[in-house]
Amino acid sequence: MLSAARWRLTVTLLGVALAGAACSSKSTSDLSAPLTPGPSAATELQRRLIEAKPGAIITLAAGKFEFADGLSLAVDRVTVRGAGPDATILSFAGQTTAGEGLLVTSDDVRLEGFAIEDTRGDGIKSKGADRIIYRDLRVEWTGGPSEKNGAYGVYPVESQDVLIDRVTVRGASDAGIYVGQSRNIIVRKSRAEFNVAGIEIENSSQADVFDNIVTRNAGGILVFNLPDLPIKDGRDIRVFDNQVFANDTPNFAPPGNIVASVPSGTGIMVMAARGVHVLRNQLSMNKTAHVLISSYFLPMTDPYFDPLTADVVVRDNRYGAGGDDPQGMLAPLAKALGGALPPIVWDGVVSHRAVTNRPSIAIVEPSTVGFIDLGLNRTPVDLQSAKPSAQRPIAVAVREPEPVVVPQDPL
């Protein structure tokens, strides 16, 4: 039989143990239980993002969360998961600070199943975040197209192994889905509409853009190389099996942005990039041109940048009506050609800094698919010197890039 003293000691130790267990359980549940909307939800979500350990899953319940400040995540191997892009909504309509809704600077992050609305800056930006997954997301500016909207919907930059899957973006004043200065990229099964540019791959290499719906933007899919960036020579990009139609929204980019020069009604535009294959896309009702191949045509001072486009293949696409109301810089040329442009337009620029480099532009389409070489010859371009020709350039065989595989893709 226990003595009274030993009995009191046993009870005391048991109480301490139970209290410790309760505290441990409370701490664990604080981080793992689904977060629900409410007055403290914004502060609590940022706390979870800061205190998360690698491997953590931060779950957001259905409902509308209100934020006055942006969020940030800097912990590797964290998943942020909502109940679906139409169920879990992170609203930044009351955001008082500039910047993005969510900034990710860590590796192996998964963002899935929620929406971000009405940010003052970009919707979701990730920088230097390798093996990131954007899946089943929506980013939207609910007031419709406006130059006051944030520039980018989803915005991974300076990263390797980027997967964007089933993402919808509406209303971005630059590009809805943008990947910049990155390598090994997949953008698939997504929808971009009512943006200035629907999908943009910029100064990036090894990218597959496929099975997307791109409509009602100023420009549909852009593959660009731009000067004055650390990575200049983006190449080996496949744009295939996309539906690119009725890109007819007036260009609402703020003045000075490079995309402000993209003519409204452009389906797919390739500018200053290398090794780009445009194949098996369905293109229709793009009022300027279905496919536009262009050199970099703006003034520049970067001595290491080559503004010419080369090693481009356009093949096996399906073309509907379009080119009947060309916009922007192409409008005067179209007027001189009878008011319309054919499905495929190349600016014909082959010279830069007194060096002529006949690029390989392979138009592997039936002769019934219209083509025009504007014959602009050299940079900087002078539209008054155009010598249009319907003769297709002599195609040189261009190796098609291998399919992109990202290690975090479960498919």
Topology:
Elements: H1 4-32, H2 41-51, E1 57-59, E2 63-66, E3 71-73, E4 79-81, E5 88-91, E6 102-104, E7 110-117, E8 124-127, E9 132-140, E10 152-157, E11 160-170, E12 175-180, E13 183-188, E14 191-193, E15 197-202, E16 205-210, E17 213-215, E18 219-224, E19 235-240, E20 243-245, E21 266-271, E22 274-279, E23 282-284, E24 289-294, E25 310-315, E26 318-319, H3 330-336, E27 344-346, E28 349-352, E29 355-356, E30 361-364, E31 371-373, E32 377-378
Parallel strand pairs: 1-4, 2-5, 3-6, 4-7, 5-7, 6-8, 7-9, 8-10, 9-11, 10-12, 11-13, 11-14, 12-15, 13-16, 14-17, 15-18, 16-19, 17-20, 18-21, 19-22, 20-23, 21-24, 22-25, 23-26, 24-27, 25-30, 27-31, 28-32
Antiparallel strand pairs: 28-29
How would you explain this protein's 3D organization?
By secondary structure, the protein is mainly beta. The chain has a domain of 245 residues. Helices cover 11% and strands 36% of the residues. A hairpin with a 2-residue loop joins strand 28 and strand 29. The protein is elongated. It starts with a helix and ends in a 33-residue tail after the last strand.
Features:
411 residues; mainly beta; 18-stranded parallel sheet; disordered N terminus
